[in-house]
């Protein structure tokens, strides 16, 4: 089981699901998956990003291993037992204090030999 905190429009979720063979993948984000898509559609040179975003959301929603939690990660942390996760990927708020707090909160959920990683911190 894997958890991604900070999904945005699902680019990394799609990539991980296409390359990782785990049983379930949980994406957590307080914003809806399509929150940024409309701005991509109307911005110069961004229609291809919009198209990819729409395709990505369709891919995720059709994938039986994918579950999207539309809320803050702290709301769902108790849904996962300690040492039960294979992989946690943190890509939410990018300031030091928030990243540190998120790592500390999710670290106990990762099994021995599992991976906790992130982006932009």
UniProtKB/TrEMBL annotation:
Lineage: Eukaryota, Sar, Stramenopiles, Ochrophyta, Pelagophyceae
Xref: InterPro entries: SAM-dependent_MTases_sf
UniProt cross-references to SUPFAM superfamilies, sorted A to Z: S-adenosyl-L-methionine-dependent methyltransferases
Pfam families: Methyltransf_24
The protein's name in its UniProt record: Methyltransferase domain-containing protein
Highest taxon of source: Eukaryota
């Amino acid at each position: 089981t894997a958890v991604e905190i900070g999904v945005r429009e699902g680019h990394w979720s799609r990539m991980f699901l296409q390359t990782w063979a785990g049983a379930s993948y949980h994406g957590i984000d307080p914003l809806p998956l399509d929150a940024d898509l409309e701005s991509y559609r109307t911005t110069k040179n961004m229609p291809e990003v919009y198209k990819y975003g729409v395709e990505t959301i369709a891919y995720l929603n059709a994938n039986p291993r994918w579950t999207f939690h539309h809320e803050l990660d702290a709301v769902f942390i108790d849904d996962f037992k300690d040492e039960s996760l294979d992989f946690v990927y943190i890509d939410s708020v990018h300031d030091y204090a928030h990243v540190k707090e998120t790592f500390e909160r999710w670290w106990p959920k990762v099994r021995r030999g599992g991976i906790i990683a992130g982006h932009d911190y």
